[in-house]
Design brief:
single chain, 21 helices, Arc Repressor Mutant, subunit A, eight-stranded mixed sheet, alpha/beta, about 800 residues, six-stranded mixed sheet
């Protein structure tokens, strides 16, 4: 730690912009000292700075508060992560001279996090080679962190957040008003008094009932009949749903697997050792009921709960179930909330109005008072990995939080990740206890669906050119005849994955990226799903179609997208069968997922077609058919996790069928019927794939048997990117070798090893070239420290950006 030093001169314009700044103070007017992390996202500022706390700010400058300080000759925003009365008591500040320590100038925002949260943020910064400020921002109110901006005149100004807390005006009768009788001619006043007779009402509700009541409210307020108060309001609570699956009724009796899972969770709650319980339950086995029952026990102990779900599409269903059980004590976080709604939900948690948090990975950082349990549903999902810095994995951060606070983590999945299965089989990971609980049965005697593999090779050789095999066609007709519902997966949005000229073979690619463009029929456009660029086009046989390379008219649509499958389904099925498409294009608006699911739920007979978002967690008892149009897209991706992701997706899809009293079936269309993934799903036998996959990973040294780190450099000049990564690798190799010698023997004498640098699979994106290298190391090896040292000693040159991904999930 270093002292917060500076000249002490303050620009007059900045003085006006930040009112209330404290002047320089004497040493005898101090309330102590503070460790402050500056809000400057750079790896070079990896340590906090020491600042003095003036007496007037003694209480306000608490841990978690946002403060204004002087850094060098400029103002800066920072976050207090520790306080002490003496400078020497701050970690790393023992050798500092108190006379050189600058004071905190003002407090900009009250505390948003506590000491344990600050410790987690610093751990994340070290673990994921990120700046401490980036990690601390995760714990701040959504959209509410003040920022300093430098204007064209050179002056710094405080940019206040746009998201503001909401309030509502409540009207209630006073004691005198309870006996007040309005004049017979004062109709509006009479309506107001009658509306308030049962209790306080908001002005918004009164206006909805009686149009504008402001005049009547003002008149009766002057007479002392009514009282008007401003109260904190919570946006984001009016998200009710008509989904039948959003109701939660406790079952009369739990299954054996549910009882065993709850017993394991109860034991971890009592032991307070921060253990992890992996609930491995088949689809439809009642894992959500386990979560709800566990939370009831945690709430009874006066503690709170955090529940993570991977998909926005699951939010309406999941939140509905939790609010059915726990009422308004549930706060919700997901990306479709507005900035104001997210702020209000965050405040609900901070004030204790909500004790259960449900949401995506960011919900993990809510200021939950006295947390007692963390639950991660569908723990295998890749969406729990953050795609931008800090590139954390929610499972790993949750486990660290649990270890430090002594609370359990519950991981649930029908297809647990290879990492989770490996750790549970080992019994511990990094000194943290792990245990496995199996839930192999569905409640109420419901059976797993039968699986039919439709060999598309046989369909083709038999002369069929339809996208629907005979088995899938017959299955759909049976659904229509019985007036049931079907779910069809096709994991390619748009109308066609790409266009191709049949004369010269040209495939139009994005001008800014090295990716093929996807054709969207509705808008007659080619869209880049990497950078979002869009180009107008007319494919064959429309007039004006032309190849961009040779000018030929025969620019044909190749492959299938969800829009094309939707058109084929509408042509195939009767008009009274609802066909609902659910993908990234059809769910862009707010509540887009919820509205489509409600439409599917309300229909008598319907087909839900969509990308992977429809394959996870959805619970519709009327669904008796689940199908995948083309299972092979996911099998041959250039990624060692491709098989695992394909198995997870197909197994989860299969679980959407037959969840009610009627038996279900699954149809998988594929050109690769003998692939281990297809065989495992068709037999409902995970070991068929997992044993094969484990052998492949162990031999090739991939997780869960080793650790990985990926370093990606991007820039407009490819030579600069390549040269910088070569320099970084040359600096890393001797450091890795020295660190390995200190750590002891590895599982393989070749570890740690550096692979690359080489171009990324997506070599160019947004007009920037992308190259990367990969590091493999033993599980107990500290990858982060050598990487941090190499980056500190060799910062990226101007025009080149570098990112570090420890334990990466995306290798493209």
């Amino acid at each position: 730690m270093v002292a917060g030093a500076g000249s002490g001169r303050q620009d007059a314009l900045f003085e006006d912009a930040v009112a209330g700044c404290a002047p320089d103070v004497r040493a005898d007017a101090l309330a102590g000292f503070a460790s402050v992390v500056l809000d400057i996202p750079t790896r070079s500022l990896s340590e906090p700075f020491a600042y003095a706390v003036p007496e007037p700010l003694g209480h306000a400058a608490a841990v978690g508060s946002t403060v204004l300080v002087t850094f060098g000759s400029r103002p800066a925003v920072g976050y207090v992560i520790a306080r002490s009365e003496a400078l020497g008591q701050l970690s790393g500040a023992e050798a500092l001279d108190p006379a050189r320590v600058r004071p905190i100038r003002s407090v900009l925002a009250p505390p948003a996090f506590d000491g344990p949260s600050a410790d987690i943020a610093l751990w994340m910064a070290r673990e994921y080679v990120a700046s401490p400020s980036e990690c601390l921002r995760l714990f701040l109110p959504p959209g509410a962190a003040p920022r300093l901006k430098r204007g064209e005149d050179g002056a710094y100004r405080l940019d206040r957040p746009q998201a503001k807390p909401a309030s509502a005006r409540w009207v209630s009768l006073t004691e005198e008003g309870r006996s007040f009788v309005p004049d017979a001619r004062a109709r509006r006043q009479r309506q107001l008094v009658e509306a308030l007779a049962c209790g306080p009402v908001t002005t918004r509700e009164l206006n909805v009932l009686y149009t504008d009541m402001s005049a009547a409210i003002r008149a009766l307020e002057r007479r002392g009949v009514v009282r008007v108060e401003e109260r904190r309001a919570w946006r984001g609570l009016d998200d009710g749903t008509t989904l039948s699956s959003a109701q939660s009724v406790p079952p009369a009796e739990l299954t054996r697997g549910q009882r065993e899972a709850l017993a394991a969770i109860d034991e971890e709650l009592e032991l307070r050792r921060g253990g992890v319980v992996l609930v491995d339950g088949v689809t439809g086995s009642g894992k959500t009921e386990v979560y709800l029952s566990a939370i009831e026990r945690v709430l009874a102990r006066g503690e709170g709960a955090c529940v993570l779900v991977p998909e926005i599409s699951l939010t309406a269903q999941t939140v509905g179930r939790f609010r059915t059980r726990f009422g308004s004590r549930v706060a919700v976080f997901h990306s479709r909330l507005s900035a104001g709604e997210r702020l209000d939900q965050w405040d609900m948690v901070r004030t204790g109005a909500a004790r259960v948090v449900v949401g995506a990975r960011s919900a993990l950082f809510c200021p939950l008072e006295n947390p007692g349990i963390i639950i991660i549903d569908e723990e295998h999902e890749q969406s729990y990995k953050q795609g931008s810095s800090p590139r954390y994995h929610a499972r790993e951060v949750a486990c660290e939080m649990a270890r430090r606070r002594g609370i359990p983590v519950v991981l649930g999945s029908a297809t647990p990740s290879a990492e989770a299965r490996f750790r549970a089989a080992s019994g511990s990971f990094r000194g943290q206890p792990w245990r496995l609980v199996s839930m192999p049965e569905r409640p109420g005697g419901a059976r797993l669906p039968s699986v039919i593999v439709s060999d598309l090779r046989r369909e083709f050789s038999g002369g069929s050119r339809s996208m629907f095999s005979r088995e899938l066609y017959d299955g759909l007709m049976e659904v229509v005849e019985r007036r049931e519902k079907a779910v069809i997966l096709h994991n390619r949005r748009g109308f066609a994955p790409f266009l191709m000229c049949r004369e010269c073979g040209c495939v139009p690619t994005c001008r800014h990226c090295s990716t093929a463009l996807t054709y969207h029929e509705r808008t007659h456009s080619l869209e880049c799903h990497t950078c979002g660029a869009s180009y107008r086009v007319r494919p064959y046989p429309e007039p004006g179609s032309a190849c961009p390379k040779c000018g030929s008219r025969y620019l044909a649509k190749m492959g299938l997208g969800t829009q094309q499958v939707e058109d084929a389904l509408r042509a195939l099925l009767p008009d009274d069968v609802a066909v609902i498409r659910m993908d990234a294009d059809s769910t862009r608006g707010k509540d887009g997922h919820k509205k489509l699911l409600e439409e599917f739920d309300a229909a008598e007979c319907a087909v839900l077609l969509g990308t992977q978002m429809i394959a996870k967690g959805l619970d519709f008892p009327e669904v008796t058919l689940a199908a995948v149009v083309m299972a092979d897209y996911a099998l041959k991706m250039p990624d060692f996790r491709a098989g695992e992701r394909a198995f997870d997706l197909l197994e989860q899809l299969a679980g959407r069928s037959g969840r009610g009293e009627r038996p279900g079936s699954v149809i998988i269309q594929t050109y690769l019927p003998h692939d281990p993934v297809i065989r495992a799903v068709s037999a409902h036998d995970r070991s068929v794939f997992c044993d094969y996959d484990a052998a492949q990973r162990s031999e090739a040294l991939y997780p869960p048997y080793v650790r990985l780190a990926r370093v990606v450099a991007t820039g407009r000049r490819e030579d600069d990117v390549r040269a910088y990564l070569r320099t970084l690798v040359q600096a890393l190799r001797p450091d890795l070798a020295a660190s390995a010698g200190k750590a002891g023997d590895a599982i393989d004498s070749s570890l740690p090893q550096v692979l690359g640098p080489v171009p990324c699979v997506i070599e160019r994106a947004n007009d920037r070239f992308r190259h990367h290298f990969l590091i493999k190391a033993a599980l107990d090896f500290d990858l982060s420290a050598p990487l941090a040292r190499a980056l500190a000693g060799h910062p990226a040159p101007i025009g080149v950006s570098v990112s570090v991904d420890v334990d990466p999930y995306d290798l493209m």
